[in-house]
Structures are given as C-alpha cells and as structure tokens.
Input
Amino acid sequence: MLDVTPFIELNMFGLNVTNLKRDSESKNMSKIIDNWGKLDTHRENHHVKSILKIARCPICKGKQSLNYLNSSLECKCGSKFYLKGNTIDFVSEVQERLSDNRKYIQNRSLANWGRSLHAGAKNEKLNNFPDRWHNYHFIEYLDKKDIYSGDILEIGCGEGIDARIAASKFPNRTYYALDIGENISDLSVRDEEFDNLHYIRGNSLNLPINDSSIDSIISFGVFHHTCDPQKCMIEAFRILRENGSLCIYLYKNHEDNILKYLGVQFEKAIMQVTSKMSISTGRRFCWFISPIILLLFSWPAQVLKKIKRFNEIGRSFPLHWGTTPTSIINDLQDRLLASINFRFSKEEFKGLFFKAGFSDVEIVTTTSGHYGYGKKHRFRPLM
Ligand SMILES: [Zn+2]
Output
C-alpha cells in the first residue's frame, strides 16, 4: 500500500508558518507561568509546558482553571491529572465516570492498541523508522497546502511513527500527538529529544484541549473505533482555530465493490465472536485463521497483482499485501479485535464534516477508504 510513490518532500508546499503569536495564547501562558512553581527546572517540563499551553480539564470542560502542583495537574473542579513520562494523563481520571458502554469500548481500545499492538514501539530505535507512513496518504490524495501548518495535532497517534516523521520534517512547528493508550507515556520518553513533539494521553471524544488552539488536525483511522465518530468531528472542530483544517481517514462500507462488500459482511460476522474474546485469546484466534485468510484473499491477490490486466482487482482484495501469517497478524488483530468498526458510505462520510460545521470539504475515496479534508470558518460561505 505504501510502496508505489516516492516520498514527496512535505516542504514542497512552501508552508510559511513560524510561531503564531496570539493574544489569547500569551494571556493563557502567563496564567500558567504564574502557577509554575518548581516545574521549570527539568527538561521534561518543556514538554509539559507546551501541553499546558493548550490543555483544558476534560471533566468540567475548562470551566475552572488548571494548576500544576507536585507532578500533577489539578483543576479547581477537584480533578487531578498526573504527569507520566513527559506527558499528562487525561484519561485515567475520566475513566471511572464513563457510562458502562463507553467504559467497555474504551477499555477494549486500551487493551487492543495501548497495551498490545502499539506497546512494543517504546523500544524502537530511531534508525528503524521509515521516512513515510500513514499520514503520507493525506499528501498523496488530498492536494492541500495546509495539512501541516501552525500548531498541529494528531488524534490517535498509535506508535508515534507519523508524529516522529512530521516533527523532524517541520522542526519549527509544534506537533502534538494524542492517543488514549497507556503506551503514550513510554513514547513521550522515547522521543523526548524532539523539542517540538509533545505527547498527550487523551480521548478523541472529549479532547483535553482548549477551544480554538490548533491550526491543523490529522487523524488516520481512529474515529471509526470510537462509539461516536460524529462527536469526534465536533470536538475536532471546537479546538481548531479560525481557518484551521482537519484531515481524516476512515473506513468505507465498500458499497461500490461487491468483493470487498462481502468481505465486510464476513468481518462483521467474525467480529460478533472476536469482539467478545479477551485480547490474548483473540490474538491466538487471529493466528489460527491467518492461513485461511491468506488462502482466500492474500495469495490469490498476489497472483492477480502480477498480471497487468488484473493488478487493480488484486489490489482491491482485503489484506492483498499478505505473504505469511506474520505479515498480516497485526492487521487482523487491528480489525477483528476492535470493539467497534464504523464503516461509512461516501455520503455519510461527507455528512460527518458538514454536521460538525466544516466548510471547503473535499473527499477522496480510494480502494481502502475515505480521505477527507475540511476547514473551519466562523461564518460558513453561502452555498
Ligand atoms: Zn475541571
């Protein structure tokens, strides 16, 4: 999927955004510095300080102010958010207050990604990192100049691969990488040498971030695993500044491809069972069915891809890149052990943007899913 086009220099867009100073930002900062205390003496505080510039309490939703005291961030509403590694944990404190359904979905997400799929990333060496990854597709498919401009937030950064690539490509920009996983604190230590990359542990349904404090948001394949993708879009809109942009990728329902549509029905049927398994049992189950998946989809796709006339058809097969069980196991786990996989038609996907208030919406649908772009304008232009 990533092997077709050489990496386009992100700088080709000639983005010219240096530190954007805004009055509200400076006021906010001076309030924080007033409460600074001992925090200023350690290197990790540089990261925490940058998080505090945009942070708001996800419990009272910013009605009260946050103060940093003794390794925790305390809100006047009584909530406490702890410093872990070089990040602040805005998830644990909220966890107990969720409804049972949301708690189940959240715990499941934490176990599947935060404690399993992405957990090994903390040991990755710098030179093991590729120079392009998922978010590269936004550049490939959406021909936009402001995908990475100003203060950037990635929602659902997983292993932090895209975060690391973008932070090193744009050393003058601030890149916030948010994820719900516990592994975020490890990543914040792993990448502490990046002065402009700050990890935040938070939830996309209730972002611990102030209104109008980010210029570009990117999120690759995240909102469809939450219980309310529309709420995620509304949250993204809220935290964007005027003229800010959002880029997302979400699953499609494959209404236009009978083969994939059948694959989706097959996935749904399997998920009736797998979504109820523990992650460790589910992982074993994925190993068990991987030869069947290779036999039904991946290997036939490999053959078709070799024949020029059928190459496109081969590429539309689910898991068409698979060669061995090891090569597809993480993708199987990612798909089948999620508690929830929303899939959208093109119209539904577009609707997510409009209902949240976005304008200048552009959608590109590929064989794998929908890529969408939208801007926040205070006044929506008349149609
Ligand atoms: Zn509060």
